User: Fold this.
Amino acid sequence: MSVTHARVNHASPKLPIVPLIALLALHTAAALGMAPTAAGQTPATGGQASAAGAGPGPAPPAELVLIHGKVLTVDAADSTAQALAIRDGKIVAIGTSEEILRLVGPATRRIDLNGRTATPGLIDSHAHIADGGLDELYDVGLSDAPSVAEALRRVAAGIALRKPGEWLQGAGWDEGKLAERRYLTAADLDAVSRENPVWLLHTTGHYGVANSAALRLAHITAQTPDPPAGTIDRGADGAPTGVLKESAMNAVVDLIPPPTPEQRRAGILKSIDLLHREGMTAVKDPSIDRPVWDAYRALLSEGKLTERVCVLWYAGTTMKSARAVLEEIEAQPKPPQSLGDGRLLSCGAKIYMDGSGGARTAWLYQPWNKNFNELDAGNSGYPAVDPALYREQVRLFHQAGVHVGTHAIGDRAIDWVVDTYAQVLAETPTLSLRHSIIHANIPSDHAIETMAMLQKKYDAGYPEVQAPFMWWIGDTYAGNFGRERALRLVPLKTFLDKGLLWGGGSDYPVTPLAARYGLWASIERETLKGTYGAHPFGTAEAVDIHAALRSYTIWAARQLFLENRTGSLEVGKDADIAVWDKDPYEIPSRELRNLRCRITIMNGEVVYNADGKSERGKGTHHGQT
Ligand SMILES: [Zn+2]
Assistant:
């Protein structure tokens, strides 16, 4: 997902800064001990009871207990327990049901898990929840359109509701899912909208299609040259087809009226609701600008931010834009400090090194393929920003002590990013900024070795990967990466073998938001439609559920600078918990994508309960077993 421009202004007073809990020493040790070698191991069952508050006198009773279940703690030993107790939003004890029931007082609320499984609340290290929620609420949804004709039918229905000249936006289309297996074009759209400008963003966010009315407004003609780091797709006669890639999108997108502040808040709330339904309690929203930050801040001050959100500010493609964003970042607390006691973190800066595997714009050493076996001759993609300038941007942020996340899909882009991180860290060896390689789709052997070095030496160089790419856009991806390269995609097993940690994610709305799809895709590596067979990415790079769950819990928490408060169920940590209908460690891995969340608890508060209505804001009370 790409944000093509950032608007920056300076306004609004600061909320009080609440530092994260002073890192509990025992948990720091546990968090740092999350060696990936421990990940795939057989879990030690029967976790020992442990409880906080070993001081004199009896501990006050718990506010909420979960009993008679199986608790997958995802602690360093991957231990399990039966029950846990919560007070003041934190886990105060974990153990057997018998042990936990001793902490029950007259006002303690009990949730009987009836043998069901609880895990840490799942975490997405890369999901555009602010933008995705806007798409859900206000755009024509095309992610499940099976054909060009159906996409056009939906656009026509939307046009019928609009005033003459009003923009129509849609999102989510993917030629790999259309029966015709081709791009939508301006000619297609003109048939249903001559007067209203139409812009339909591809599911990757890196390209889209405009109708002729929109192209006219943007002054895009056959004579318009491709902009730097962008592509105007053209027919044999040189005329634009309507498909615009990367920076070429800006000429159209910049004309569309931005969402109102109310719409932005509604979009975020829409996504938070979806996250709660999927057992997800923390998310990194990568590539925001000032209006989005203001929307998060407003929701926080209204008490509606019932999700942990860590944001990256989009740094733009110039030094000027990077400096302006640095100014925004410097005005906020740096992670792990937060606003709202661990709810909102200004985590750092986002830069794009290259484009997309869908648009064949990502920066590769060898030319792209198409249709799996054909060559897209002469096209090896391109950098999204001048590589030397990128290096200066990273140096700027790094020297200011700011976390950087860089979008890099192609092998050549990834190499440039990891070498840049290695260079700035050698110059200024600041530890634990956790610079990340977002997507890291086909890292070279050199990149993997460099990431391993960066993690060990500097606590940096973490891939934030999306296993669901192989599924949701996997047919398009396989066709473009080609038979041989596809086998190197998302090499999780190699990461594990090299001792690398990674954060799991969806890149929502590129793929659906639910993390259960990512757990499943990390193991099954199957495409949605099987256009080039079910497994064009092979199965050699599959990992097991223990590693997959870590990547969506404690490892992802690291990349949100929240690993000392969430990501595992341990005494002293915040009570961020998901309860599932099935045990992810026990069911066949092919069934993981059908896991259903029953209850989501965030900071000790039940924010979703499939067995009853949401109890947000009700606080502690009796009953409900
Ligand atoms: Zn993204």
Remarks:
- The pocket of zinc ion is lined by residues 1, 126, 128, 286, 507 (CB under 6 Å).
- The chain has a mean pLDDT of 91.
- The two ends are 42 Å apart (CA to CA).
- Residues 130-253 form a domain with the Diaminopimelate Epimerase; Chain A, domain 1 fold (CATH 3.10.310.70).
